[in-house]
## 1
Amino acid sequence: MKYGKFVFAVVVVLLALGSFGFALAQDAETLVMWSQDGDVNDAVLAAQFEVWKETTGSTFSLEIVNKETEVLRNDLQTAGLAGSGLPDMVLGPNDAIGVFVDSGLLQPLDNLFDLTKYPINLGAAQVAGTTYGVPTNAGNHLMLMYNKSLVEKAPDTWEELIATAKAIEEANPDVQGFAYNLNEPFWFLPFVHGFGGGTYDADGNMVLDSQAWIDAYQFVQDLKFKEEIVPAECDYACADGLFKEGSVAMIINGDWAIADYKNLETSPALGPDNLGLAPWPKLPNGERPKPFTAGKFISIPVGVEGERLDAVVSFVTWLTTDPAAVTAYALGTSRLPAIAEVTVDPAADPLLAASNEALLTGVGMPADPTLRCMWDSVRPNLEGVMSNSVTPADAAAEAQIAAEECIEG
Amino acid sequence: MEGISGLSGDVILDTLGQIIPLVIGVIVGVVVLEFLLYNLLAKTFKLKNALAYTLLAPAAIAILAFMLYPLFFNVLLAFSDLKRDTFNCYSPIALGECELDHLYGLDYAVENFTDVFFRVRDGEIIGWGRLLRTADSTFPVLLGRTILWTVVNVIFHFSGGLALALIMNQKIRFKGIYRALIVIPWALPGVITALTWKQEFHAEYGFVNTLMQGIGLEPISWLRDPVAAFVAVVFVNIWLGIPFYMVMLLGGLQSISVEYYEAAQMDGAGALERFRFITMPLLRPILIPAVTLDVIWTFNKLDLIVIMTGGGPEEKTNILVSALYNAAFGTAATQQLGFAAAFSIVIFFILFLFAIVWITSSGGLKEIYDR
């Protein structure tokens, strides 16, 4: 009994150290990726990592942590401020890259990768001539998606889309003809581009109050209040959920969702046979709305070094340049490859070919950090237009003022 | 947006494999440290109250680590110029050349606190400062909306809670069941409540519009119309807040001796007089702290607004704290953390002043202090 307490203390200390050691030992061999991609696409990526691991004999494992866009941005900055807790890789769209570069949180990749391998969309991840992201795919573009069991042929104009939507609703009272993420600027910008507008003028100044912006606000307001073909309120989850269960015939969504919609388990009303893809219908001026295009990019945060950096570079290089790996990832996620050696074979995947057709109608999305001021300034004004409490002209003027204040800081 | 399809057995096991060793490590570590601390205090320093200090130590350390340090850090941030462009100056690992000649200073604090209220150009005030992206997101507008939000909520919380407490204080059957049902909103996690109500207020598929259409009313776009959205969040917060008052006031009512009522009744006092001259005065020691807490909680109610409306549409359901959250971390975030820290200190002082004035003028804590 004399040494009882001592032995007990030693045992508990060893237990504690062992527990911590076990937890830490797990972290040392795990590469962490923060991903803004969906679960289905993340699963494809995880499977690809296992193939790479087998090929190279690497001892690292991969943990993918899925984070929504804003959460990922906030978490990365919080970890950056603390100086620890940053992941080994970040997978997301290119428009966040500028913000992270401004904050000094991403490593330049020019000396880590052979950038000549990525001729298609690398510019979307470059800030002031330096590269901060390697593309996993080309696209990230919005397009028209329809349920073939409800829509025979994709409408080529908005006039046709409105008529089709109304006809479907008349024939099927429980089905919404058309829906999309009404108040999200990413879904609105294609209309602005279609009416001939853009975010920046030729001198690089942000212009959000041109006639094209007013026309675009008017157009989406009319879709809701004049034509009454969209739901009174609908966000991403609404359009996505209704489409999967067959309660809406046509939606606007991005290439990231295709793999999910092809999966009959998650999308019982769709699957590869019922899912149809098409470019945006033409506006009354004869132009198609032009979605922003770029892709998803893998960036490497600061602080990743040594063996971990070697492993990350090796994996990302293989994933994005090895033709077999690129093809497998493209087919698995139903997204377009970002290297020239791998092209889309319409016979191999007609949906991928249709997505490619829609991609060609888009415009490149810059990685300029001020783009964030556009998104943030347009959002509340678009909400006003879509609740009919703000006129298109006032919305455009207000967005311009807000954006200028945002850029001034 | 994404489902929980990734929550497979492997993921759960892997997660537990990481969490359980950590939890065991923390528990064992705390026990060992407590053991060592007690030995140090009792045997080395021979303190009389060694056990008391040992048992208080974890709580004291937790308060220091999770309350005092963040509070201090927040004040420090208010004296900084931390924003997106200067992030690398404050981060120990960020790349890039720091262009600031000092990291903390009174000049930054003056600028941050001024920005909360005013828009300044070239040293001159040119109007109210926009805390977010719309012209309505100025400090006076947000303060006005916050006061309206707080007053309406507290009035309905109090009156609803008192009415229910009076009913529950009567001799009625199945009282326990009713009481449990009424307390449910309070017991549910706020996030679940907010998400549930968000769906119920959906214009197309929500229960509220279905009910309205059922009785012949026009459906309302609850979460897309600024006024309707504000009404919706106020309604939900009223629903959430009533059980707190009911529980507090019911406890107060049950502590009032029936002899007072019997004596008053013998003197000919009616129900209204008994309520006014017996019930209300004797509820006062409970009511004042309850109202104080309710005002502070309602004034600071962040989760409900952020989840149900995100402060929108058009940033018109924001109150001060949700505007602060959105300015620092939300969709309109400009990463101006120094400014956001100053903004939070302003909100803190508003509530601090309210608490002092309210508690002093109401004399609500007098009886507690006099005991």
## 2
Amino acid sequence: MTRLWRACLAGRRAKRCSGRSAFLALTLIYFLLVAACLGSLAREGELSLGRNPLRNLLKTAVEFARPSFIDVWWGNPEFAYRSDDGTLLRVENRRAVELDYLAGLVGATWTTIRIATLGSLLGAVLALPLAALTARNLAAPRPLAWLAKATLDVARSIHTLVFGLVLVGIVGLGPTAGILAIALHSMGSYGKLFAESIETLDIASIDAVRSVGAGPVQVFFNAIWPAVLPQFVSSHLYLWEFNIRDSTILGIIGAGGLGLLITEAISLFQWGRLATVLIVVVLLVASFDAISRRIRLALL
Amino acid sequence: MSTAASSAAISLQAVACVADGRTLLDIDELSITEGERIAIVGHNGAGKSTLLRLLSGFMRPAHGTLEVLGHALAGPMPATELRALRQKVGQVLQGLHLVARLSALENVLIGGLGRVRGWRGWTRCYPAHETEQAAQALQAVALLDRAHTRTDRLSGGEKQKVAIARLLMQRPRLILADEPTAALDPSAAAEVCQLLVQAARQATLVSVVHNPVLLPLLAERVIGLRQGRIAFDLPLTDLDHQELANFYRQ
């Protein structure tokens, strides 16, 4: 008995030791990777902050600190553009111009919301059957499960922007490309989250419903659906919010919306306008976050 | 088929269950007549739950013949026949297993799902007479006032009562109860046992029991399992309490 106990203790010790040394080795590899990244960048001279980082920072901060929408109230109504020799080229009412820009901004925001909303919904719908196939506890046929998992992994690993670029080539410029890009990329994330919620299901309660002689569809709607619905809605709200952020970038490749305005502002060095657009993005994401948090709390 | 065999609710012959190379159950012969009340006793891992899973068609034996309510369960079985059998077999499982986010009434209505066909069973829009029956079942277990409470907000005893109301709704011919009173206080356990016996008035009742006090409430015949084999099979009146205590001690 004592020998058995000793062997057991030794086994546990050996397991613990091998676990610890594996963790140490992984930590070491991680720090070596960090050192290699830092060292190689430093050797290539790519770690510099430029010639005048502080002055540039200050300048950018000052430009950003004056968002363009302020001009709607305090802009110069007779702003004169002159050539180098002082000739008057044209006079512009800054207030009217910025008011027009704000109107355009509202339209672009609506486009972004439409891309994110429809893209998220399409992604969720596409992901649902794939998640059911991937979830281990539902025991789908192995080749199908493998195929579904591979599809989700590929979708998740390709960035929305890459999907967008390819889709603009296929369906042309406009929100459709954006919607499809968002749907295809977020399908991967939805599939993973949905499959994980299905895997946390209480299998015994499903068996209890099966045990009364219920058919597969009845089991789905009476045991699986009520249990996973809150988690599905929660995942949907989370990814929807994420996609609103993501769809602002899609404008860069021609899907329209806020991203287009961001690209314009950056190319023309209009930091004031960029600040205005970014404020809208932040407000949009923050308000969506607040709403979705309330809905999530109400659902649990 | 003899008359005795035709009135048998359950009959097992040379049945063995194996998982991961380990024999979970090895029964030479067991016959349970319709309307009998049976208690199965034994240590944890003795094969009690395996036997119940076998009888409800959730597990198949490695070999042997097994017949439950006239359905042969040993070989492969069409899904429709399995569902038809499950409609007739009611279960109260260890740890209850109600659908947590549904109300007590909706959980009771699940008991009648075998009878509800088509879209009504998918959308949980049950016919009025089913809802009426479910309400009656809840009233029978004195829980009608909690009908619209979500089951994850009910107490342990109340949940077990909902499981029994689901059983009443199902109207099964065979009831399998796996430790129906586990985690209940003594008075709640006795109440649940009485309700279970009432539900089983028209049915055969096979229950796994640990508490000897509950045996007279639930059984007239006691089967002891040890390491997957039948150690004893006696009428309750012949079972000595000391003998039972020794059985658990071994």
